[in-house]
């Protein structure tokens, strides 16, 4: 993703233009798919997916299927990159998702 597109998505998020943010982040993720599968590409995808999950929470709600899909992909990237410090915000989002689904057992297991 070009620096301009990332800056545009961050600007849109600051302006509360969540739908525009989702569009820009989704385009960025599509562009990343054209790059070789490297750790740097995975790190960039991780950051975009994490930002996308926040925008989707706001637009679609905490229990939307798109939110779960995005968070699960972010978790997968986190594990792939062995980014243990980044795991907490991912698991937090996943716990919020399951809480809003009424899946309290899964939420508890994630919190442990």
Give a quick rundown of the structure.
By secondary structure, this protein is mainly alpha-helical. Helix content is 81%, strand content 0%. The mean pLDDT is 88.
Which class in CATH terms? Mainly Alpha
Q: How do the SSEs run, as a string of H and E?
A: HHHHHH
Query: Could you please say which CATH topology applies here?
Result: Serine Threonine Protein Phosphatase 5, Tetratricopeptide repeat
Q: Beta-sheet strand percentage? A: under 5%
Number of domains: 1
Q: Could you tell me the number of beta strands? A: 0
Protein described:
- Helices cover 81% and strands 0% of the residues.
- It has six helices and no strands.
- It is globular and about 40 Å long.
- It is mostly helical and 112 residues long.
- α3 (39-60) packs antiparallel against α4 and α4 (65-81) runs antiparallel to α5 (84-100).
- It has helices at 3-14, 18-32, 39-60, 65-81, 84-100, 104-111.
- The termini are far apart.
- The protein has a single domain, classed as Serine Threonine Protein Phosphatase 5, Tetratricopeptide repeat (Alpha Horseshoe), CATH 1.25.40.
Give me some keywords for this one.
112 residues; mainly alpha; Serine Threonine Protein Phosphatase 5, Tetratricopeptide repeat
